[in-house]
Amino acid sequence: MTRARQFPGHMRADVQVAVDQLLASPLHFFGIHEEYRYETLAFAALMKEGRNAPALAPAQYHDVEIGEAQPVKCLHNGLWLCRAGELRYAVLLSFHREYQHEAAIRIEIAVPAGAAGDALVQRSFAELEEAVHAARSYRGKILSLEGGSDYRGRSSGIMVHRLPAVGREEVILPEQTLKLLDRNVMGFVGNRAALRKLGQSTRKGILLYGPPGTGKTHTIRYLATNLPGHTTLIITAEQVGLLGAYMKLARLLQPTMVVIEDVDLIARDREEMGSCEEPLLNKLLNEMDGLKEDSDILFVLTTNRPEQLEGALAGRPGRIDQAIEVPLPDGIGRSKLVQLYGKNLPMDQTIIDEAVSRTKGVSAAFIKELMRRIAQASIFRDDGSTVESGDISEALDDMLFTGGRLNITLLGGAQEMAGS
């Protein structure tokens, strides 16, 4: 008799590691070649004869990236002939394909009928399931779902983002905003166990809002690289159609932070939505509503246009628990940004003060670009040995005047600066 289980294709790295451990000492191992790959390879198909029958072949592997120094070598199709004591059995690994659905990893075990065979099957599947639920390849990392191969030819499925750690001192926000962020994210996560004991919900929704370029994405990187033991899932607006798969991952990899950037693109006023957009919004709202109260899942949504958010998302308690404004930097913030992004430039305090005074109303992204252009001007003049007031003027002229109003908007400058 045979019995089979299927595991999500994007978890193939963990399935492969578990299979390698489970079948470390087979009697024989064979690769299997399929001439036609639109059917799922099963033991029944191995009984076929003729020109279209599956054939023994060298094992075919794909390198799957998991964010480590080495990828996981994942088998495409394989057959193991094994023995456990007097019991002989066979294991077949293959891909299950279904139109418009993600391919799954299929494990089929053939054993003699009887209690001994049944026990071996149950034990084997239990080990595989435990490995998949442990998700050691991806737990604690920053992930997004991707398809195809990267430029090195490695399959992704799940893409691991290797982001440098961002320290709290590198998050240039008003102190009251930082304290609000710490209380509602860092403090909340640290107190989850205590909240659970008191019968309180451990799921949460945060909305980061503010003009473009003020540091919302940078703030998310700070959270993602500093939340202890958390896995972060980053969902862009165009990927919301994959929300179901993302939420399965979120539940599997708890505690998780689920980030949806530019949520206003799918959560606009219903009267402005097309027939394709509204189901995406409903799916998001249903997922946020459907989480159990003890789910260790933190939603962080971002928007540049909070006024356009659908009322069902912004106005109902339990979906968004705290909105946090990420504002344009004030004078103190601009001074910190100038020093952060110009930390290797030879600037004295007079130059720093001038850069701060001449950038009122701009975004953090604008100051970052300004410091790069000042560095370029310094390099052209004396190989980066000095920074002069003229370097600031030259950079601001290009950014605010020569390029016109569109350039100001693109760079995150204040429109009123164009007339100053």
Written overview of the protein:
By secondary structure, this protein is of the alpha/beta class. It has 3 domains: 2-134, TATA-Binding Protein (2-Layer Sandwich), CATH 3.30.310; 168-325, Rossmann fold (3-Layer(aba) Sandwich), CATH 3.40.50; 331-419, Helicase, Ruva Protein, domain 3 (Orthogonal Bundle). 37% of the residues lie in helices and 20% in strands. The strands form 3 sheets. It has a 7-stranded mixed sheet with strand order 10-9-12-13-14-11-15, sandwiched between helices. Strands 1-8-7-6-2-3 form a 6-stranded antiparallel sheet, covered by helices on one side. Helix 10 packs across helix 11, helix 12 (364-382) crosses helix 13 and helix 13 (389-402) packs across helix 14. The protein is elongated, with a radius of gyration of 27 Å.
Query: Alpha-carbon distance between the termini?
Result: 82 Å
Tell me which CATH architecture of the largest domain applies here.
3-Layer(aba) Sandwich
> Could you estimate the helical fraction of the residues in percent?
25-40%
Overall shape: it is elongated
Counting DSSP E segments of at least 2 residues, the number of strands comes to 15
Sequence of strands across the biggest β-sheet: 10-9-12-13-14-11-15
| Unreliable sequence segments | none
CATH topology of the largest domain: Rossmann fold
> How many distinct domains?
3
CATH domain class name of the largest domain? Alpha Beta
Q: Please, what is the CATH homologous superfamily of the largest domain?
A: P-loop containing nucleotide triphosphate hydrolases
Give the overall pLDDT as a whole number: 85
Number of helices: 14
